[in-house]
Every structure is written in C-alpha cells, then in structure tokens.
Amino acid sequence: MKSIYAFALLSLICGNLFAQASKDVYRFKNGSDISKIMSYRDRFQFEKFEDGAVMFRGGKVTKAKLNYSVVHGEVMFIGNNRDTMLLNDKEFIKNIMVGQTPFIYHKGHGHMEIAGDYGRARLGRKLFLTRMGNERYAAYDQYSSSSAITSFSSFTNVDGRVQVLEGNDRVILRRRTNFYLIDKNDHIYPATKGRLLRLYSSHKRKVNEFMKANNTNLEKETDVMKLMAFCGSL
User: Fold this and answer.
1) Which DSSP letter does residue 92 get?
2) Domain assignment of residue 27, given as a range
3) CB of 30 within 8 A of CB of 171?
4) Which of 11, 37, 63, 234 is least buried, going by the fewest C-beta atoms within 10 A?
C-alpha cells in the first residue's frame, strides 16, 4: 500500500507541471477575442490535442484528436476542416479518453476529469474559469463551478442558458479547480470532509488524524491529491 501512495504522489508532481506554468487571473475588455489574450497553454489542459476516443452509452466509439478547453469547461475535438469544435450528444456520452486521461460527462457539471480511483471513491477534477467581481464566490457554488465562458459578452451557466455579462470596461476571470467525490453508484458530491468521512467510514479516525497532521485544505490541489492517495492506501 505504501508503494501505491508513493506512486500517486509522484504522478501528482509529474502530471501538474504543465498546469502550474499557467496563469490564474486574466483581465479582459468586454467582448475581447480570447485567443488573442490567453495563450494556448492557458486555454487548454493539455499541451496539444491528443489521440482520444469518445465512448457512447449505446456502445458506439468515435476516435478523434481531443483536448479539454478550460474556457468552455468541455472536451473539444478537431473537425475535418481543422476547426476546434465542441462535442454533441453529451447526454449519451459514457466515457472520454484524452490520450491516457479519462473524462466523464455529468449534466450538472459538464465534462470532468477522473483524477484517480481510490477504492471507495473516484476523484473528479474540474478546471474552469470563474468570473471575479465585487461579489464573493463560494467553493462549489453552482454558478461558479459550472459556468463556461463562451465569449466576453456572455457566458453559459450551469443550465446551459446564455446570460449576458454586464457592460463593464473589464472582465476579470480566474482559473479555478474544483474537486468531486464519485461513489460506486456514480453519484457525484463536492469533495468535503463530511462526504469523505462517510465514504471511508471504517477509517474515520485515520483520515481525521491525517487531515489534522497535514493541515489539509480541500481547496488546495496538492492537499486533496495527497489525502486521496492516503485514503486509497488504507
């Protein structure tokens, strides 16, 4: 079990080198062209479009060049005309593989990376851009966790409806990562301490001790990954 824990920590370090090089806060004039302000590195999770596959619930498999768009909060593919396009029929998608990285689709959260399988739970990881302003956003708030920026005069909210941004001179967006716990029945929950202890109920004391000893912050990616690696080793 200790070797599994060590391997998970090594994977965390290697797997996040690309993400760590990205900016976190972006400032735009309303209506700006995103491709002229955000670099490719900041707009996409992976350095390039990877060979991938989309598996549908009926058994159909479609292969394509895929990448995850942080801007849209969705997996995109390269079409026959070389344009980058969003996937259709999302509600019929079972799994997506972008290179060796698995994703799922959930109506309330969009496309989500499966960051690891830890026995009683899988860890979901969602990268997105959230709008910053005078209002304070809360962790796992429905508006923040699922909004996908389609332009800088509008955004698509959690229900898929386009809403118009206010006519401010500047729009400030922040790159953010939310984590979710996925149980054996494919139910998705925010990665909170309470939910984690319920999923690993037979190891409550050990999990509590680990979180206390490491001062675990469930808003911090490295802390979440270390905690889940520990839970998976129990």
Assistant:
1) G
2) 2-233
3) yes
4) 63
